[in-house]
Every structure is written in C-alpha cells, then in structure tokens.
C-alpha cells in the first residue's frame, strides 16, 4: 500500500493484521472512534467487547499465556486507560506478552486537563516493559511493529501504545510493514558456554541435584529439555506457581510447587539439595520465605534467566547464566553427555519416595482432616482430562488448586503470580477459551474474587465463550480470614462478605447455566451438566467457612518452618 494515503487508524489496523493479530479485547470510547471505524473494516480481526477494561487486559493476558502469542487489549483515553492498569501490571509482573492500545486526547490538548485526559504514558511507564506516545502518524508502522517485537522477545512483557485522536485521524503516505527494530533493544538470548559448562559440571558432581522450574521454562518452550535433564541427572524437580505444568506433576521426579503454600516435600528438597538449578524464576519472597538462610543452604546455586536484572537480585548465586532457558538447557545437556552421569543414587530414591508421599495424599480424597475445599480440588483431578485449562482467582481457591490439582501439560494452569490479582481468573478464562476453543476451560474462583469481575458473564454469553466458573463459596475473603485466624487471634476484621448474591440466580440472569454443588460427590454430575449445556456456566460450590490451605510458611518464616504439616506422611 505504499504511495496510498491512509489514516493513522487505518495504519494501526493494517499493522495489526501484519502482526497476525486474530483477536482483540476492548471497549471503545470517544478518543478511539477513528480506530474502531477502521477496525470494523478488518474482517481478519475478531473484536470482543468486554464489560470492563481490567477484564480486557486480563483476557488478553490469558490468551497470551495459553497461545504463546501476543495478546491485545484496547481502551479509550482517561478512565478507560487507567482501568487497564491493574491488568497490565499483572501481565507484566508475570512476563506475559501483551500489547495495549489506548486512545488519547488530541496532541494539541495534551496537558490541558481536557475531557477524559490522563497521562497514560507516564502512568504506565513503571508497569510496562516499554510504552509509546505517538505524536506523528508517519511513525505508526514502526511503532506498532516494535511494540509486538518488544512484547514477545527476551523477557516477555507489556507494551502500551498511546494514540492521540488527531494522530488516528490524520492521513499520511507511508511505507507499511517495516522490518527494522530499535538499535538499542537487543535481548541477549544466547547463554555463555563457559557458564553452561560450569553448570553441567556442578550438576554432574552433585550428590543431591535439584531443579527449580519457573514460568520461564514454559515461556521458552523448554519443557522437554527440562524433563530430559531431570531424568539424565536423576534430579528432583520443584516448581514455582508460574512453573506449574513445566513437567507433568505425575512424573516420579516432580515434587510439585514449592514456597509459602507449596508442598512440604518440595520445600524439604530445597532444604536438602546440594546443587540447585533455577530456571526462569526470580526467587520471589513467596517462594523463598523471609529466612533466606533456610533456602537451599548447602547448595551450589545456578540461575538461568533471560533477564540479566533478575540474576543475583533476590538471592546471590554461584553460577549465573543470562540467556534463553531452552538454549541454556540444550547446552547443559550437551556438556553432560561428556560426563559420567549416575545411573541411580540414594537421592533419586528419596525424591521418588517424596513424590509418592505427595501423590498418595492427593489420591486419598477423603484423607482424615481433609476440608471440603481439599476434596473438591482432588475430585477435579479425577473428572477433568489432561488438556483442560485451569485458571484461578487469587486467595485460598488459588492455593488449593496449586497444591492439589495435578497439572500435566504446559500452558494449562493459568494464575496470577507476582501481583496476586483478585478477579483475574474469570476474564483470563475468557482469553484462554478464545485461544483454545476446543479445550475445556475451568476457572477455580473464590466468591470474593469472582464478584470483582463477574459482570463479564455478559461477554461470555454474547460471544459464545462457554467457560465454567467453579466458585468456592464460603462468604469470606478466605485467605485473609485464614491469616486472621492463625496470626491475629481470630480477630476477623472486615473479612465476612455478608450479603452476597445467589450465584445461581446471578448466572441465570446473564443467560448462563447455573447449578449449586452442596456435596463434593455431586461435582462430577454438575460439571457434566455444565459442559453439556454448551453455555457459560456458574457452579456454586459450598465449602467450609473455616477451611484452611495448609501446610504454609508463617509470616516472617522460612521453608523449614512450615506449619500444618500434621497430615503429611513422613518420609
């Protein structure tokens, strides 16, 4: 289309098509009328009208995590853009590739407190990987191309493009689809071979090697390399919350999620190992606890991350490796072939025993002391197939799912990690279902979280997006209530939700299938009814008001000081 005059809005749409965008989640407004006029002409791009901009950002995030492609969300100027902030922060903290397009007042009005003006560029600077305020339509091809390139390379993240109204409307003659990228942006993905050789030697010489798999393993598509390395070394594997699915949790070397609400044996393995290979994880406080001297105290620490800023940031390491996790693992495996690897060891048997103890607990649905919430998640393991995508809200429901749900494949467990955003799971499920329409998508929700974004049930019905929301209904802000019970002498300050809607009537009011589950044994038939309805569905699952996620690391504690371990089998 070189030589033809196009409006700025038309240029943006043409560049979105070139980037392969198939779907965008958004809400129009006055500052975006030109863009939406051009978007309406683009049959290649499906636009899903959300009911809140935060949900648009979460849906784009969920779409990106399931598909591996860049999610796109759209909001108008002022309150539309500021409503995106929580969702964009969430996506950026969890390294999810998202491009946000926001409307802005005309360039001549910027800084005048014009109607629906907000300084989106400066507001979003701290919570995005990069952002642009476009003041010339001629720059749009280059800006849009670079936005997608930056979002989905290196450490993936959020890029925002702020589009003033006059820039969208003005017509210019441009060359579309540029290939050049910013000269200053050159993410280093190739690991240093001297460092990967050191890592291989340290792992080969260790008696008790352990691998800590973070979200970077999934993002890099390195799950096969991870499994091969674990089996070659006879090493156990523990994951972060973001790393669930990096290795099948049924694998005999997998000990599940570690950290504050992790499995006791995952934390115990961290405490006992003598070499720890950390892959694509930033050693967050929710993983390490606050007593850092208890975290892998006897281990040679090896950290692989594509973001150099994360190396040595939270935990000092012995062998730092900056680069793509998949490439680093490939190098380490090549070096190991030249080494003499143990065929078996006492450590390998211990890892398998710890795995068996965890698996036994999960399979024993009615284990003494189990709560209704425990049982419901364990039931899901028997009901749902391995391809089902689970999204979660934040709080107890999230940690019950992280602890007891056995994830078998990457990109099938979608949760808010770094920001811990209540209300994330349901709109993320919308994005997940759009990304994988042939898969079942189930949101594990708390009643408090679901109430924050439930209005987008209308989006599901209107756009035929049949996700299933399983609400853990205890009429409390459950995780906060748990902390108040355990650490604040049962002084329950403003955690009782009091009056909440009848979720059955709420679901039906939006045109959804809805059913109440009063006993765990009724969950199977309720899920069957929900899936067979072909509609978005709300299942109101009644759980105990005093159900607690245990074991856990208490505030200020370390990984060796978990409380609530009484039900765990000793090995």
Architecture overview:
The chain has 571 residues and is of the alpha/beta class. It has 3 domains: 5-173, 3-Layer(aba) Sandwich (Rossmann fold), CATH 3.40.50; 193-353, TPP-binding domain (Rossmann fold); 366-542, Thiamin diphosphate (ThDP)-binding fold, Pyr/PP domains (Rossmann fold). It is 38% helix and 16% strand. The strands form 4 sheets. Strands 3-2-4-5-7-6 form a 6-stranded parallel sheet, with helices on both faces. A 6-stranded parallel sheet has the order 11-10-9-12-13-14, with helices on both faces. The protein has a 6-stranded parallel sheet with strand order 16-15-17-18-20-19, sandwiched between helices. Helix 12 (285-288) links the parallel strand 12 and strand 13 (300-305). The longest helix is centred in the middle third of the chain and has 18 residues, at 346-363. The N and C termini lie far apart (68 Å).
Q: Radius of gyration, Cα only, in angstroms?
A: 24 Å
Poorly predicted runs: none
Structural class: alpha/beta
Strand order of the biggest β-sheet: 3-2-4-5-7-6
CATH hierarchy: architecture of the largest domain: 3-Layer(aba) Sandwich
CATH class (first level) name of the largest domain: Alpha Beta
CATH fold field value of the largest domain: Rossmann fold
Describe the sheet with the most strands: 6 strands, parallel
N-to-C terminal Cα separation, in Å? 68 Å
Structure characteristics:
Rossmann fold, 20 strands, 571 residues, alpha/beta, 6-stranded parallel beta sheet
List the SSEs and their pairings.
Layout: E1 5-7, H1 8-18, E2 23-26, H2 33-39, E3 46-49, H3 53-67, E4 71-75, H4 79-93, E5 98-104, H5 120-124, E6 130-133, H6 140-151, E7 158-164, H7 165-169, E8 171-173, H8 193-205, E9 209-213, H9 215-219, H10 223-233, E10 236-239, E11 254-257, H11 264-272, E12 275-279, H12 285-288, E13 300-305, E14 319-322, H13 325-336, H14 346-363, H15 372-383, E15 389-392, H16 396-404, E16 413-414, H17 425-435, E17 441-446, H18 447-453, H19 457-462, E18 468-473, H20 478-487, H21 503-509, E19 513-517, H22 523-533, E20 537-542
Parallel strand pairs: 2-3, 2-4, 4-5, 5-7, 6-7, 9-10, 9-12, 10-11, 12-13, 13-14, 15-16, 15-17, 17-18, 18-20, 19-20
Antiparallel strand pairs: 1-8
